[in-house]
Design a protein that fits this description.
The complex is a heterotrimer of chains A (about 300), B (about 425) and C (about 280).
Chain A lengths: L1 H42 L1 E2 L7 E2 L3 H7 L2 H34 L4 H9 L6 H11 L5 H10 L11 H27 L3 H9 L4 H12 L1 H16 L3 H7 L10 H11 L3 H26 L7
Antiparallel strand pairs in A: 1-2
Helix pairs in contact in A: 1-13, 2-13, 3-7, 3-10, 4-7, 5-11, 10-13, 12-13
Chain B lengths: L2 H29 L5 E6 L3 H17 L4 E6 L6 H10 L6 E5 L1 H9 L12 H7 L3 H5 L10 E7 L2 E4 H6 L9 H11 L6 E3 L14 H9 L5 E2 L2 E2 L4 H15 L12 H4 L2 E5 L4 H8 L1 H5 L1 E4 L13 E10 L6 H12 L2 H11 L12 H9 L1 H7 L5 E2 L7 H17 L5 H17 L4
Parallel strand pairs in B: 1-2, 1-3, 6-9, 11-12
Antiparallel strand pairs in B: 3-11, 4-11, 5-9, 5-10, 7-8
Helix pairs in contact in B: 2-15, 9-10, 18-19
Chain C lengths: L7 H28 L3 H4 L12 H12 L4 H32 L5 H12 L7 H10 L6 H5 L6 H12 L3 H9 L4 H12 L1 H17 L2 H6 L8 H11 L4 H21 L1 H10 L3
Helix pairs in contact in C: 1-14, 3-14, 4-8, 4-10, 4-11, 5-8, 8-11, 11-14, 11-15, 13-14
The chains are: A mainly alpha (about 300), B alpha/beta (about 425), C mainly alpha (about 280).
Chain lengths: ~300, ~425, ~280
């Protein structure tokens, strides 16, 4: 008798469980399975949105891997990361430290930085393209006080740096707060113990604080890497990929090939390639940085 | 805040939103594309929108045919991209404006536009507007897919007042004259003689390299027999000039600045005729001292000055369910001189007609509109860009392999021309002739 | 004297941090100031110098109506799409998260693993197939296309699941004994107990959909369905020399986000401490 009840109860539970998850399942079928299937189709076909896709073998893969713009865009992502990650890291650490030492107006300061990430991509791209333009306030300030002007978005050397700068502005608050709450989780007792052993502030920071913030740092790195591979709006609106393709990001290349050249197969193949590369970068980074940290 | 009140207000808002959403779904299902209406997409330009607003209104009131509804082409990227996107999404209109020659070649290849020659009255229309020569530039394999709306010669605007201040009573016409002017007026970061590099978009090459090429070569094509024919002495002269200007910082490079000309920190810049009404509204004092002058030519140049025609027109898509009705509308519009006048009045752009200088109606207008007239005078020697399907790629190549290497000093004039020719030829290879 | 806390360095730190905070707000302040000035004066005056007026706001609202690119309409569209998406995400994610961690049924661990697997894929990867999907469903150029990809946030499900897991089962047992249905438990028990995380997820979706540019641009061709972000981008490309109205548009686009962040700041900060478990 008990067995019957169990089975019917389990069956009922299973039904309910799947019922509740049905939204997720339908959603995943539409927005995950279907796209993945299409990606595979597109990777191996020749198609321009019109008519039926035709089999094209490995031609697309060869096309993408031998395309100068593809590799340029990957190089650009790495250039972006090389500029963005140190900038944002150091800034958010300093911000978190400063926030910790603050007694009054913590919320005001935290919010001022945090609210930068509320900026819609379109709006802040427009604003910064104007602020950094040759007759904009930034250059006016530089000229008045230092006598020179920087072609922020018009020089192949500076364009990517400028994008890295504005993205840093956007996310320092967010990353900083992550670090800050991590710092708060470190018990004072550790610092007091270190103090007794005669460690000074800088030593404390590098030997105690930083290692204990490991999981936060990994999280920030993953966020930053994902962000780097996804830069689109800034490049699309402000620089259009130039000058000299120095800000041509992978997403921009994918968008252009799909919607300007009506070549979705190139775009899809590239998407797969970029996904693999970004995944590898994240895994390697985690292997290098991630440590098991215990607060004994 | 009273908790209960908040809850009620939120509930009402949520219900309202869902209602709106549901209604929009129902609406969509009902309408789809209303088959009893002709949809027209127009260029995203204020003055053109004013023109179409009146035209469409008149047509709909006249009852001579199917109702027309118009909308602006979405342009967060470029209008071509949006149009292609709409074709691909099956949301394209019946009639579409703002099509240039290369794009129509691309559309023809996609087999998405109607051959206008098949419509009754097309040839008469062309004759009545004296468009014989103009249409030659739009024909592909003897077929004609576009009804050209306007033809803007690319021209420079010069600050007459600033020129006078520096001892010049007319704008520079040749490369050496510009160099002389630049040497006098250039103050780095504060004042520039000219803006040679118009922008990073592919269509900006119409306003620099290609226009200069037509001017230097007296209108010779830059694509011949499906190959780039730019590696010659004309380009060399142009690029040597550009090179000198860029090296000496005589040309304003920052493309995000829009106010320099009006503020007086830039003396010469390319402007289209649509900027005449814009200037009349926003900078009327500046407009008074503007001199409109053709594109610069090499010192050795003699005779007529050529330039590029920024010329666009309308197409009828094959997806249109009533192509005859669409043609009726276009024929009605184009066969009446009064609408050419309206176009001229609203946009100041020369309508695509061969009789601008001879027809008394226009002559009367031009008597009182010197700025417009300056453009109309050059319509005869303004040629459209090459009729190739991958215009965008080819002109992008010009940006990447000609303009930018010179600007950023990563190439010499010779190396740029050689590499650009090769790249462009590679692109053109895949084309049908 | 241990109570002498306000040391010299402390004051310096305070001054620096406050100055930096203001510096960080500068772009917003500049944007607001520029939006209240006429185009010609924006680059030639400092941000605190006038003359100030609302002419840009008037201009962008009026002239956009004239050219059939209605600013107010796309503002409405953005509000609609964002609100509907946020509501759906919060409701659905909570239901699904509850199923994933509190209900027992066969295949639950498989679904859990699936979620984690899905999180590996960057969302932008699927832009082309998603576009094709919308086309096949004849949903291009509709509100549905704008928010359907956001209706369920995989990251949201994951975060809410984590948070639900830490809610003690005793409450649930107690409710069940009282005869509560699962749905009641989700809405009246789990959600109120996990307000911080849900606020974060909601705010993430809210900001994500409102600010969304690439997808909205791909999927819309008619101006009456366009969201504000895409419309503003169109203005930037086509009417780039009308700087004043552009700034006004940017301000209107940004303001709701700033207000949202300000109103929910407490919950946000709370939630950020929690999400780092």
């Amino acid at each position: 008798m008990k067995k019957y009840t169990n089975t019917s109860m389990t069956a009922k539970k299973t039904l309910k469980g799947w019922g509740f998850s049905s939204v997720y399942i339908i959603f995943s079928l539409l927005f995950f399975v279907y796209p993945v299937v299409w990606m595979l189709i597109l990777m191996f076909s020749k198609w321009n949105f019109i008519g039926e896709p035709k089999w094209n073998g490995f031609h697309n893969i060869v096309r993408v891997l031998t395309d100068g713009l593809f590799w340029q865009s990957i190089l650009n992502v790495f250039r972006f990361m090389v500029m963005y990650i140190p900038l944002v890291f150091i800034s958010s650490v300093l911000f978190a430290l400063g926030l910790k030492k603050l007694k009054y107006g913590k919320t005001f300061v935290a919010l001022s930085f945090f609210v930068a990430q509320a900026a819609p991509g379109v709006a802040y791209s427009i604003i910064f393209s104007k602020i950094f333009s040759q007759d904009g306030p930034m250059n006016a300030f530089l000229y008045e006080h230092f006598g020179f002007v920087i072609p922020w978005f018009d020089s192949p050397t500076f364009a990517m740096l400028s994008i890295a700068l504005i993205v840093t502005w956007k996310f320092v608050g967010y990353y900083g707060i992550i670090l800050y709450s991590g710092m708060n989780a470190i018990p004072q007792s550790i610092y007091e113990a270190a103090d007794i052993d005669g460690a000074n502030g800088v030593k404390c920071f590098f030997k105690i604080t930083l290692p204990l913030l490991n999981s936060q740092m990994v999280m920030i790195m993953v966020l930053a890497i994902t962000l780097a591979f996804g830069v689109f709006t800034e490049a699309f609106l402000i620089t259009g990929g130039g000058p000299l393709n120095s800000t041509m990001t992978p997403l921009l290349v994918m968008y252009n090939s799909a919607f300007r050249k009506l070549d979705p197969t190139f775009s899809a193949t590239m998407a797969v390639a970029i996904a693999i590369i970004s995944y590898l970068v994240i895994i390697i980074t985690r292997k290098l940085i991630e440590k098991e940290v215990d607060l004994v | 805040m009273n908790n209960k009140v908040t809850k009620w207000i939120s509930a009402v808002i949520v219900v309202a939103l869902f209602a709106w959403y549901v209604i929009s779904i129902i609406n969509n299902k009902e309408q789809g594309r209303d088959p009893n209406v002709l949809t027209l997409w127009i260029a995203p330009q204020d003055v053109q929108a004013q023109f179409w607003s009146i035209v469409v209104d008149d047509w709909n009131k006249s009852g001579l045919g199917m109702k027309v509804v118009y909308n602006t082409i979405q342009t967060s990227g470029s209008s071509e991209e949006s149009i292609l996107n709409s074709i691909v999404s099956n949301t394209n209109p019946d009639i579409c404006d703002n099509i240039f020659a290369g794009f129509v070649a691309q559309l023809a290849e996609l087999k998405s536009v109607q051959n206008l020659k098949e419509f009754e009255g097309f040839d008469e229309l062309v004759k009545s507007r004296q468009m014989g020569t103009i249409m030659k530039g739009w024909e592909k394999n003897g077929e004609n897919y576009v009804m050209p709306m306007y033809s803007n010669p690319i021209m420079y605007w010069w600050r007459g007042d600033k020129l006078k201040e520096n001892g010049w009573d007319k704008p520079p016409e040749t490369y050496s004259e510009l160099i002389k002017l630049a040497k006098k007026v250039t103050i780095p970061h504060r004042q520039y003689a000219i803006k040679l590099f118009v922008g990073r978009n592919w269509w900006d090459r119409w306003s620099d390299f290609i226009a200069y090429y037509y001017a230097a070569s007296d209108g010779q094509p830059y694509i011949v027999d499906n190959k780039a024919s730019i590696d010659n002495q004309y380009s060399k002269e142009i690029l040597n000039f550009y090179n000198e200007a860029f090296s000496n910082n005589w040309s304003l490079i920052d493309v995000s600045i829009s106010e320099a000309f009006w503020q007086g920190t830039l003396l010469g810049e390319i402007h289209g005729p649509w900027d005449i009404p814009y200037a009349q509204n926003t900078y009327p004092e500046v407009l008074k001292s503007v001199i409109i002058s053709p594109v610069l030519v090499p010192d050795s140049h003699k005779g007529l000055k050529y330039t590029l025609a920024d010329t666009k027109g309308l197409v009828i898509f094959k997806t249109c369910q009533h192509p005859e009705e669409a043609w009726k509308f276009l024929r009605w519009l184009f066969s009446q001189e009064k609408y050419s006048m309206l176009w001229l009045e609203k946009t100041e752009m020369p309508p695509a007609r061969g009789d601008l200088m001879t027809n008394p109606i226009f002559q009367e207008y031009y008597k009182n509109h010197p700025y417009s007239k300056a453009y109309a005078e050059y319509v005869g020697t303004a040629l459209p860009p090459a009729l190739i399907t991958n215009t965008i790629d080819v002109q992008q190549a010009m940006t990447n392999y000609i303009m930018e290497p010179l600007m950023y000093k990563t190439g010499t004039v010779d190396s740029c021309l050689k590499i650009a020719t090769k790249k462009i030829n590679d692109m053109l290879e895949g084309n049908e002739l | 004297m241990i109570k002498k806390k306000i040391g010299f360095w402390s004051i310096i730190v305070h001054i620096i941090m406050f100055a930096l905070a203001l510096f960080w707000l500068y772009p917003y302040i500049w944007m607001l100031s520029a939006s209240l000035k006429s185009t010609a004066t924006i680059m030639t005056t400092n941000f605190w110098q006038g003359p100030f007026s609302f002419e840009n706001y008037q201009f962008i609202i009026e002239s956009s109506e004239r050219v059939h690119m209605s600013f107010l309409r796309s503002l409405g569209n953005s509000i609609l799409v964002t609100a509907v998406a946020t509501i759906f995400v919060v409701l659905f994610s909570s239901i699904v998260a509850y199923a994933f961690c509190k209900m027992e049924f066969k295949g639950r661990s498989f679904l859990n693993k699936l979620v984690i697997f899905q999180m590996v894929f960057p969302t932008f990867m699927f832009m082309v197939p998603q576009f094709i999907l919308m086309r096949s469903l004849h949903l291009l150029n509709t509100y549905s296309a704008l928010f359907l990809p956001y209706v369920l946030s995989i990251g949201g499900i994951f975060m809410i699941s984590q948070s639900f897991r830490s809610t003690p089962n005793d409450y649930i047992e107690a409710a069940k004994i009282d005869g509560a249905t699962d749905l009641w438990i989700v809405f009246k028990l789990m959600m109120p107990l996990n307000k911080a995380i849900i606020t974060i997820v909601a705010l993430n979706v809210f900001v994500g959909v409102w600010n969304d540019f690439m997808w909205a641009m791909i999927v819309t061709s008619d101006y009456d369905k366009m969201t504000l972000a895409v419309l503003l981008a169109t203005f930037f490309k086509q009417y780039g020399n009308y700087m004043g109205p552009l700034m006004a548009g940017s301000t209107i686009l940004t303001l709701p986000m700033l207000i949202g962040f300000f109103i929910f700041r407490k919950r946000l900060f709370e939630g950020m401490n929690l999400s780092l478990k």
